[in-house]
Amino acid sequence: MINLALLEGIKVVDFSKWLPGQYCGMLLGDYGADVIKIEDLQGDATRRFWPEKTKGMSYWHLMLNRNKRGVALNLKKDGGRDLLLKLLQEADVFLEGFRPGYLARYGLDYTSVHKINPRLVYCSITGFGQESHKPAHDLNVVGLAGLNNLDDVGRACVSEVQVSAVGSGLNALSAISMALLARERTGKGQWLDVNLYATALSMQVTGISALWGCRETGEKPFGRIAHYYNIYRTADGRYMTVGTIEPKFWQRFCDLIECPELEKRQYDFAHEEELQQLVAAKIAAKTQQEWLELIGGAEFCVTPVCSLEEALDSKLTAQEYILQEADSDLGRLQYIGGPVKFSEDASTIRMRAPKLGEHTLDILQELGYNDNEISALHEEGAI
User: Fold this and answer.
1) Domains of the chain with bracketed CATH
2) Which of 87, 244, 246, 380 is most buried by a 10 A CB count?
3) Cis preceding linkage at 118, omega within 30
4) What would the DSSP string read from start to end of 197-259?
5) What is the rounded (10 degree) CA torsion for 182, 188, 191, 196?
6) CA-wise closest residue to 195 among 171, 173, 176
7) Residue 142 — left, alpha, or beta (φ > 0 → left; ψ -120 to 50 → alpha)?
8) Strands 121-126 and 93-96
9) Is 156 exposed, middle or buried (CB count within 10 Å of its CB: 0-12, 13-18, 19+)?
C-alpha cells in the first residue's frame, strides 16, 4: 500500500468541543489534513473525562484529538480573537460546534469570516440547526427524533453508541469533502449546517418511508422485529441474533432448532406472538456456546451477541486492521482507525492528541508573530 495522504495540504481549524466535531476533525487528520485544534485556556471538558491517562489527557481526548496540533486562546481578548482570525484567513476548513449566534459576538460568524477568506469551507455542528438555541446531548436528541423508541411495544433504551453525534461527525466529514470538491470547480467556499436532530431523523429513512406508506395504504406499521428477525436469550443468559429474512435462511434456522413445521409460517404475522414465544423457548434451551457449536461453519444470519471485548478480540476485527498502536511520550497508545480503506492511500497515526496549548508558540511563529507580540499576548491573557 502506498502511504500517501489524501488531504495533505488542507488546513483545518477545529474549534469543536464535543464528540461530533472532534470525531470529524479526527478523521480529517487521519487522512493527512493539518488540523489545528482550538481550545479556551481551561481546555475542553472532555480532557477530564474518566478515565484519564494523565491529568488533562483522558483516553477520550487521546483517541478523538490525535493527529491535531493544539492552540489555547481566550476568545474574549482581542489578541485571542485576532489570532483565530489570522488562522482562518489561510485555512481551508473551519469546524465549529457552538450554539447559533455565539461566534457572531466576536465577528467569527460565516458572513464575517467569508469576507476575509471566500474560499473557506465553514462547517457548523449544532443540536437543532441555526433556528434553535436548545441545549441537548445525544440522548435528548435521539429521544426527540424517535430513535431510541426501538421496539414494537414502545420500550426505550440507552445505546452505548452516541448515534446522532457520531452520525453528525460523519455527515460533517462528507459535507466538507463535497464542499472542498465544489471549491475546486468554483473557487468558492460555503457554509455547511449540520445538526444532530436532522441526522437522527435522516438515519430512520426506512422506518419513515414505511410509516408514510402505511398511512397511505391503511396498513399497520410492522416495525423491524419479527419471529424471524429478533434477539433471543440463551440458557446461560447470553443472546443470539436471528436475522433470517430470506426464506432459505429461515428454513435452515427451522432445521437448526428442530422445528421444520415452522418453515411455512415465516410470514404468519397473525400469530406473531405465538411464533416468537416458540422460537424463544427453543433458543432458551441451550447456551450460546452450544448454539455456536451446532451452527459450526454454516452461514445463515444467526450469530451471537458479543460483548465489546469479544468484538475487539474477534477474527472479524483482526481482518479489518482497524486497531492500531503507537509509541508516545505518554507510553504505548491504542487507537481504532477510520472505517474506510483506500486502495492507494492510507490513514496514519502521526501524533498523539496535544496537551493544552502544546503547539501555540509554533503556530504563532508560523503566522509571523515576533517575540514581543507573543509576550504581549501572554500579558493580555489572550494565550
Assistant:
1) 11-203+322-380 (3.40.50.10540), 229-312 (3.30.1540.10)
2) 244
3) no
4) HHHHHHTTHHHHHHHHHHHHH-PPP--S-BTTEEEEE-TTS-EEEEE--SHHHHHHHHHHTT-
5) 20
6) 171
7) alpha
8) parallel
9) exposed
pTM over 0.70: yes
- Is residue 209 classed exposed, middle or buried when 0-12, 13-18 and 19+ CB atoms within 10 A define those classes? exposed
Buried b / exposed e along 302-324 (16+ C-beta atoms within 10 A): bebebeeeeeeeeeeeeeeeeee
- What letter represents residue 336's amino acid? I
Alpha-helix runs per DSSP H in the chain: 19-30, 59-64, 78-89, 110-116, 138-144, 163-186, 196-202, 205-217, 247-256, 272-283, 288-295, 308-312, 315-320, 360-366, 371-380
Closest CA to 57 of 65, 48, 44, 66: 48
Half-sphere exposure of 226 (CA within 13 A, CB side): 18
The distance of Cα 228 from the centroid of its chain, to the nearest Å, equals 30
Residue 208 CA, chain-centre distance (Å), reads: 22
* pLDDT means over runs of 10, the chain (383 residues): 75 97 97 97 97 97 98 98 97 97 96 98 96 89 80 68 95 98 97 97 91 89 83 96 96 96 94 95 97 92 95 94 94 93 84 98 97 97 98
The count of residues in the chain is 383
CB 378 within 8 A of CB 74: no
Nine-digit cell string for 194: 449540520
206 and 252 Cβ atoms separated by less than 8 Å: no
| CA-based nearest residue to 80, from 292, 278, 376, 305 | 376
